[in-house]
Amino acid sequence: MHLAAAMSRLGTESAFEVLARATRLAQEGRSIINLGIGQPDFPTPPNIVEAAVRALRDGQHGYTPANGILALREAVAEDMALRRGVEVHPDRIVIVPGGKVTMFFAIAMFGEPGAEILYPDPGFPIYRSLIEWTGATAVPIALHESRGFAFSAEEVLAQITPRTRLLIVNSPANPTGGVVPKAELDRLVAGLARFPHVAVLSDEIYARMCYDGVPHASLTAYPEIEDRLILLDGWSKTYAMTGWRLGWGVWPESLVEHATRLAINTHSCVNAATQWAGVEALKGPQDSVERMVATFDERRKLIVAELNRIPGFRCRMPGGAFYAFPNIEGTGKSSRQLQDELLNEAGVAVISGTSFGIHGEGFIRFSYAASSEAIEEACARIRRHLGA
User: Fold this and answer.
1) Per residue in 270-291, pLDDT tens?
2) For residue 348, what are the domain limits?
3) Of 62, 272, 281, 294, which one is least surrounded by beta carbons within 10 A?
4) Do both 208 and 89 map to the same domain?
5) What is the pLDDT of residues 163-172, one digit of tens each?
6) Does 324 map to a domain?
7) In total, how many domains does the chain have?
8) Catalytic activity annotated for this protein (predicted)?
């Protein structure tokens, strides 16, 4: 068989590879603590589950509109007004089976040979994978430890060329937990006025997970880029619905038809019952979200304290999401070497920083979407492994 050349450019998400290896070791009888996968360890709230069951019993078994049922798009619009203070017409919202689909649609719209797309590094690995799949040039935006893993607007703007089609922003961020300060977003948006040909994809899937009383700063708050801004958000992280596969995109009016056509050509529509669960998630009680985020905040402080007790590690306090991204250069080991050692010899699954880009060398990603007991035991195992 002769595959298209683009298939050789398609990357992967290493967290799932490490998960598979960790699962195999556990099946062999090894004690494995998994701090690698980015998935809340909370169940989906029962009111959301019941809404899906009710929808199935009520006969919600057929196709829905490609852009999502109106009730869900209206619920998203209400949520946008409540949490971001932005009025969005439901017709600009496209419901998709997971946040990655909005990402795929945006990159597919703008990526082709000769184009350039800027993306955060260290960053979610699928950004670069999809950019290169389209044949576009992937241009990394360096996220610096010294800046709390926020970008410099000046550096980003300096990387824009006439070939730049799309800029990807992710805050709060995977894998670093970094949060871009509003002042830096102000500078970025002001500078983008010089580059009207550049669209922006703002990945805000962790928007509800900000700490220390710092409110989430959304790019949707800047009307001057509304006509070229794509927002990515969804239910997976906030409502512990990773397996439900449900996300949304808010698109400029000029791109909604293109996004909807891509939906028709790929997945037709999102599972009907899942969409009614999404309505309940947004419109129902939010106390489960508040409890989960408060628990993550406690674990955030715990894991940073524990990681900083490990010889050769230093870890900044993440401002959002549920990841810690310690610098491990003091161990004298490469990121991949330490990742493999910790899994195979210490029974702790983590992800090498190089899985998230060239600027990830010297770092390891920990997910603190695990119990405090698991975090403490994992860090104790690492200290023992390193002879501390």
Assistant:
1) 999 999 999 999 999 999 999 9
2) 5-43+287-382
3) 62
4) yes
5) 999 999 999 9
6) yes
7) 2
8) L-aspartate + 2-oxoglutarate = oxaloacetate + L-glutamate
Q: In which band, very low, low, confident or very high, does the pLDDT at 17 lie, cut at 50, 70 and 90? A: confident
Q: Does residue 175 have a cis bond before it (omega within 30 degrees)?
A: yes
